[in-house]
Design a protein that fits this description.
There is one protein chain. The chain has 451 residues and is an alpha/beta fold. The chain contains 15 helices and 19 strands. Helix 7 crosses helix 10, helix 9 crosses helix 10 and helix 10 runs parallel beside helix 12.
Amino acid sequence: MRLDKFLCDLQYGTRSSIKKDIKNGLVTVGGAVIRKPEFQVDETLDEIRYCGRPCIYRKYVYYMLHKPSGTVSATQDARDKTVVSLLQDTGRKDLFPVGRLDKDTEGLLLMTNDGPLAHELLSPGRHVEKVYECSLADSITKEQKRSLEEGVDIGEKRPTLPAGVTILDERKIALTITEGKFHQVKRMVRAVGNEVVYLKRIRMGALFLDDRLKPGEYRELTEEEVEMLKKPVQSAWLPEHIDAVIFDLDGSLVDSTWVWKAIDVEYLNRFGIKPPPDLHHLIGGRSFHETAAYFKELFHIPDEVEQIKADWNRMARERYSSEVPLKAGADAFLAACRTKRLKLGIATSNSRELAENVLSAHGLKGYFDCIMTSREVTKGKPAPDIYLAAAQALGVPPERCLVFEDIVHGIQAGKAAGMCVCAVYDDASVYQDAEKRELADYYIHDFRELN
């Protein structure tokens, strides 16, 4: 590639201004000053510096934009503000939106200069899922839901393809479609006798809208997100009879058990208490409330149980929002489950606040049809109560549910509920591995084995 073209692609200036800077000796290649704009460089190997700053070449860039209402999905428009104008400070002049959102619709919009990827994502034959949060004028009826799920006549040659419908509230649904017809969501809802009063896209393919982005804000995609977009969602391994997948949270879906070990030490240190080496074994499977009560009794903590829980939540909140990673391969597995139109749930002994924090941090909160915590049932694991409650909330018989668990008490709870259970490896429960393998129907080291 010509040196001047390389620097132009990186938006360092116009071709004429860059040529002038090169001739003035402001550019080096491999440590040597180059004064010829036509000098050929290998953009992937050569060390190129402009005014002393290293230049890293990226042919394609990818941004997630939370499109605000009132902007149009175009590169230029004579009357209205465009989505491209919201990304002016990136320095990129070659960005365009992948697909369109109506002027009054907000939510996830992918902005890029990667034409081939955009073509792939918009190809009708690929059936990339788009999920919209829809507020409705009236409560959705069973008949309306069934019609949307079967496909409806919106005045075109063929009815729409079947849609996925998840009821979020009395007048709010999540609608999943795999087409991109003009005003499709509004026309589908109108066709069944209702009306959309607010529309927000929350997912496109495997990419979820980051809950932390406010309307008008954007961020670059991570390398993992780009790879997920480029890679067609594979059919994940699943037993044939499964209609819903329910995940324990800590140690199963997210790698968070280290957080609680650190919190146990920090919390007990306040009272001059050294945690016993088998503490994690003693509290395994207990609900958040039961664990706090156990701490109060075992260590003679003067604070009330509710205060203990509040302190733990405060100590864990920041870590769950920024430091707790997903188990390897979990994001791709979740995307594959949604592609197969499976119901997804969380059944956790943790608090709802922390569960929602960590799911939102990874842009996954919208994946789940229910989050069930031990506070909402009578008995914690190994009793089956929490898994039975999750199955009821999902509207799926227990025998058609698959559970992912990392500890023996959780596996026992899933089996007692009459569900299929897959054990997940976790460092904190490695001492239970033999028993976990014996009790569970399946065993995985991480979710990459299932994709």
